[in-house]
Specification:
364 residues; alpha/beta; Rossmann fold; 2 domains; 6-stranded mixed beta sheet; 13 helices
């Protein structure tokens, strides 16, 4: 009988986003491979609308409540492998491991390293989502380099099939795909500035569609009003929040995609040039020479170099729209399937989980 039990512990403030998409993909993959999977996280739509309906066990945790965390701790001690993420979820995972001796994996997503050097010896594995994070963790934790792994974020390539190349002149559409909350301030500021630059140049093309919503939406609406002013056909159209199953058609209908890191990878998987705007800056993936550079920083995350100016970004947008590369789609799809496909990424994680259960050494 298969007694492998994976517990994934995470703390978050934004109710839905790329973090939750990645966790859901891993949980589903592990379950399909015969693991019992339990996700411990704050109550909300992620737990109720995605985890539990997927047939995955879910435990709501109020990390500010001693009673709630103690109850979760008791349940965690039955896990054979624990995968934690930064913050109070990592603290809870290490407490459970201290009692049960279950190996703990810990993911570092970007510039929040959570003081990893202080507890690295207690971990079975440190998962880094990009080469830039991997290099920094190796620098901070030289004594555990054999337990540091680079496993990038993945996307479901089956949900984003390659779409036909759009031809210059028939479409001039840029899709902005992102949550629009406080942690995506750079996305909002960059897009708003691009619209102001386009208005200043007196350009009615490209058209823009925005798939997303959040507390900063009003800033984009205000910026769009200048670009739309006096136009019979609006230059900017707001679609609101779109479920993941509708994003494929949005990417396919655009010539270029601007968005947060995960959205940029999804756009590439369908064959669309993308410009990623993440926590550390702006990075382009509009030609194959840029793919590895963009991936080095997890598409605009930790390790991202200096961002181009707004004028330079708009110039690149216009250039890509004017001269589409007929080979881009094949190159982009191949890159994502080789490096960022969920099946590849999660197979690597499960192999690491399996290997950790074959060792009796306790990491403390």
């Amino acid at each position: 009988m298969d007694n492998r039990h994976l517990a994934i512990v995470l703390f978050f403030r934004a109710p839905l986003g790329g973090l939750q998409e990645n966790i859901l993909a891993t949980a589903r993959f592990a379950k399909a491979e015969g693991w019992r999977v339990t996700v411990f996280c704050p109550d909300g739509p992620f737990l109720r609308n995605y985890i539990i309906p997927s047939g995955i066990e879910g435990v709501s945790v109020d990390f500010s409540s001693d009673e709630s965390t103690q109850k979760a701790l008791t349940s965690l001690c039955s896990a054979t492998v624990i995968h934690a993420h930064p913050g109070p979820s990592r603290v809870l995972a290490l407490q459970a491991s201290q009692e049960s001796a279950a190996p703990v994996f810990f993911t570092i997503h970007g510039r929040w390293f959570d003081g990893v050097q202080q507890f690295a010896e207690k971990l079975a594995g440190i998962i880094c989502v990009s080469p830039a994070v991997f290099d920094e963790v190796n620098r901070q934790c030289p004594g555990v380099t054999d337990r540091i792994f680079c496993v990038p974020n993945g996307v479901n390539c089956e949900s984003f099939p390659e779409a036909p190349i759009l031809t210059s002149g028939k479409h001039q559409t840029v899709a902005v795909v992102s949550r629009l909350d406080a942690d995506k301030q750079l996305v909002v500021e960059t897009v708003a500035a691009l619209w102001r630059e386009q208005a200043a140049r007196g350009l009615t093309s490209p058209k823009w569609i925005v798939a997303g919503d959040g507390t900063l939406m009003h800033q984009l609406i205000l910026a769009a009003s200048e670009l739309n002013h006096g136009k019979a056909d609006p230059v900017v159209e707001f679609l609101g929040w779109q479920p993941s199953e509708k994003l494929s058609s949005i990417y396919a209908g655009a010539d270029l995609v601007l968005g947060s890191g995960r959205c940029a990878i999804e756009a590439l998987s369908i064959g669309r040039p993308s410009i990623a705007i993440a926590s550390a800056g702006v990075v382009s993936a509009t030609n194959p020479m840029q793919f590895k550079v963009a991936a080095h920083s997890n598409f605009g995350g930790y390790g991202c170099g200096p961002s181009p100016s707004i004028s330079e970004i708009l110039d690149e947008v216009l250039d890509v729209l004017a001269k589409p590369d007929p080979h881009f789609s094949d190159d982009a799809c191949r890159f994502v399937r080789e490096h960022h496909d969920n099946s590849v990424v999660n197979r690597r994680l499960l192999d690491l989980y399996d290997a950790s259960t074959r060792f009796t050494h306790r990491f403390d």
